Amino acid sequence: MNQIRMHTGSFPLVRDVGMTLTSEGWVHPDRITDFNVFIFVIKGQMQVVEEGTEYILRAGMGFFLKSGLHHLGTAGTIPGTSTIWIHFSEGLQDAHVPERVEEGSLQPFQASRTYKVFGPVDYRFELLLPKLVELQEPASFISKVKDLYELYCSAPLFGHVLLSIKTMELFLDLYRLHHDPERHRMTSKSDAVVRKLALYLEEHWESLLEPDRIRAEFGLNYRYMSTLFKTRMGISIFHYHERHRIHKAAELLKSTSMNISEVSDKLKYTSPYYFSRVFKKVMGEAPSVYIRNIYRM
């Protein structure tokens, strides 16, 4: 569907922002750009063709055009259609990710409901932006898009940086609205199993991963659950459990007087040395460095 993949460790780099009010005979420009385009229709109807696929955009719809593809308009745009658009590139990679990331090499983005401390690994995900979104109650989103346009027009100091940050916020809002859990609940039996298993792993963070215990708890083949979990979550059962345990360990180091050995023992690691290796892999720094960097009241 020619969707845009954003790296969650960076933000979109805004080129420019504008508004369009169409007149009789207006059509979308026939072009191939080296930047992406986000279009939001405030009122009216706009027609866009991308690589031969026609899209009809109505009021309350947001749409992403991907760079490097052929876009044009033919007919179908209504005179008086009002839109706001953003031209942007995907953004820069952070220092912990190779400069050139092959498409599909990053894991899909997944929300962390329980983490309170985040390491570099938590930003090594891709956000697959929806191609087309229709908002049922767009008033609040329209207000944010207009604020973004006003920011672009006012050109404050570091305005381009602020624009890019707020555009990322806007895209995250759009992503959340598109994946509203109240409208897009996981209803299949397999998805219910994945949700229940993730909750089980989070609740048993003090224990080592025990496949036999999980098999008995769920009454399902462990290999089947492993495949299902990896498919739905984009991460293995082991690594999901490991990451959650290390985030809990970081919380203990931050909010209690426990030392590294005590936390290692609490989480049943074989040794503080092994615990430190896993901690550094997940958090990007050794627990001793993490402790030094903690701001204590």
Automatic annotation (TrEMBL):
Keywords: DNA-binding, Transcription, Transcription regulation. Pfam families: AraC_binding, HTH_18. Residues 195-293 form the HTH araC/xylS-type domain. GO terms for molecular function: DNA-binding transcription factor activity; sequence-specific DNA binding. The keyword Transcription applies. InterPro entries: AraC-bd, Homeodomain-like_sf, HTH-like, HTH_AraC. SUPFAM superfamilies: Homeodomain-like (SSF46689), Regulatory protein AraC (SSF51215). PANTHER family: ARAC-FAMILY TRANSCRIPTIONAL REGULATOR, HTH-TYPE TRANSCRIPTIONAL REGULATOR EXSA. This is AraC family transcriptional regulator.
